[in-house]
Amino acid sequence: MAKPAFIITIDTEGDNLWQNHDRIATENARFLPRFQQLCEKYTFRPTWLTNYEMAVDPHYIEFARDVIARGCGEIGMHLHAWNSPPLYDLTGDDWRYKPYLIEYPAENIREKVSFMTQLLEETFQVKMRSHRAGRWAFNEYYAKLLIELGYQVDCSVTPRVNWQFSEGAPQGNGGTNYQHFQDRAYFIDEQNIAKSGKSSLLEVPMSIQYKHSSLMNHAKSAYDRLRGKPRSPSVHWLRPMEGNVEQMKSVVDKTLASGNDYVEFMLHSSEFMPGGSPTFKTNESIERLYLELEELFSWLKLRTVGMTLSEYYQKKVSG
Predict the structure, then answer these.
(1) If we measure between CA atoms, which residue out of 139, 134, 183, 144 comes closest to residue 161?
(2) In whole angstroms, what is the distance from residue 188 CA to residue 201 CA?
(3) pLDDT-based confidence at 298, cuts 50/70/90?
């Protein structure tokens, strides 16, 4: 029986975008080779889902071209609407509010997705096949644009998570509600991206499991509504949060036990840099991160085979 795939996805973007509201720096590009080397040690091939500011950073361009030339990973597209050309002032202060792309006018969405795709393809001289939406916000119109532009695989869906409580534009309705989406790979229905269909776009949802039982989730949800503070259910992701190796292993075990043929890991590129995120603020925390990644990757090496998103797509279409 073939081993399940281990898919590493990195949202490759500016430094500490959680807190930097008036500027975007890309120092984290200098810290990416260490993680790439770790992946190669275990014959894993990451997918670097690349945002605008990184796509024009000379250090990242050099790094990514080397990854492509050696066949040790994939470059895909990631798009944060508030700073990705062509600019369109949706809120009066988009850098502060960080609106979801799906909140912009349809024509501006099309222009932004087309621009980023062309920029990445011209810079790296490879066809863009893989994609993840900025802030996980995805809808049917966005999916149709990706299909038009020749993308094969998207990984924006976060099963069990409702982003409607995470504000974008003040006048908007928040992000996408994925609570009732599928949690395994499926070719999407263009009319309803939560359902399987006959499109050419493969959805590869993130590996996410509930933290609590369904009974506890129901009770907590009812309590939150009574308080007037509804929120998404508590979940565990296959992503490092410092000290959560066993938790990540549990997500892997539960995901594979459910019959899934892959597990999907994610992190932001800035999380490899001290001070690049709220999670890993010091040199010491970065060193602990790498110790935990070594433990996780050595454990996964025995259970999975590394694939990029495009390689996983090829596995699905070839049967």
Answers:
(1) 183
(2) 6
(3) very high
Residue 9: HSE in the Cβ half-sphere, 13 Å Cα cutoff: 31
Instruction: Please state, in angstroms and rounded to a whole number, the distance separating the CA atoms of residues 101 and 108.
Output: 9
Largest CA distance in the chain: 56
Q: Hunting for tokens 């504000």 — which residue is that?
A: 167
In terms of Cα–Cα distance, which of 190, 44, 50, 185 is closest to 128?
A: 50
| Average of per-residue pLDDT values in the chain | 94
Report the alpha-carbon distance of residue 272 to residue 29 in Å, rounded: 9
List pLDDT tens digits, range 144-183: 999 999 999 999 999 999 999 999 999 999 999 999 999 9
Report the C-alpha gap between 193 and 76 in whole angstroms.
20
Going by their DSSP bridges, the two strands 192-196 and 186-189 should be labelled as antiparallel
Closest CA to 99 of 115, 114, 86, 88: 88
Strand duo 74-79 + 47-50: pairing: parallel
- pLDDT, one tens digit per residue, over 242-296 is 999 999 999 999 999 999 999 999 999 999 999 999 999 999 999 999 999 999 9
Q: What percent of the chain has pLDDT over 90?
A: 90
Write the CB contacts of 198 (distance below 8 Å, at least 6 apart in sequence). Answer: 187, 189
Q: Which two tokens stand for residue 11?
A: 């949202």
CATH code for the structural domain at 5-318: 3.20.20.370
> Would you kindly state where each structural domain of the chain is located, as residue ranges?
5-318
Are 141 and 102 in contact, with CB atoms under 8 Å apart?
yes
Paired with 12 in beta bridges are: 50
Cα–Cα dist 224/247, whole Å: 25
Handedness of CA 143, 149, 152, 158 (dihedral sign): negative
Check if the beta carbon of residue 235 is closer than 8 Å to that of residue 210.
yes
Q: Check the CA dihedral 266-187-306-148 and report its sign.
A: negative
Res 216: pLDDT: 64
| Angle between helices 32-41 and 283-301 in degrees, nearest 10 | 20
